[in-house]
Design a protein that fits this description.
single chain; 82 residues; mainly alpha; 77% helix
């Protein structure tokens, strides 16, 4: 699977920034929303979706130049996956 050079050049950095923002939001403790179980469920689903997104992007990036675009986000990705 290849994400395509056009996608990588035009959108990859923006997509990774959006995912980084979603990652920060997903790390909010669901315990803070005891009175609203829907938000707690949403945060859990968000985490699962982010794992799938990161896996897809990492597997889809094959060109060396595109891999370099991932480097600034590697710490965030690996920190989230811990």
């Amino acid at each position: 699977m290849n994400s395509g050079e056009a996608f990588s050049q035009q959108y990859l950095t923006d997509v990774l920034r959006i995912l980084e923002s979603a990652t920060q939001m997903s790390l909010t403790s669901p315990d803070q929303f005891e009175d609203d179980p829907d938000i707690a469920d949403y945060l859990i689903q968000l985490r699962e979706t982010l794992v799938e997104c990161y896996m897809t992007i990492v597997h889809g990036v094959t060109q060396q130049q595109t891999k370099a675009n991932l480097v600034p986000f590697a710490q965030n990705i690996l920190g989230f996956l811990q």
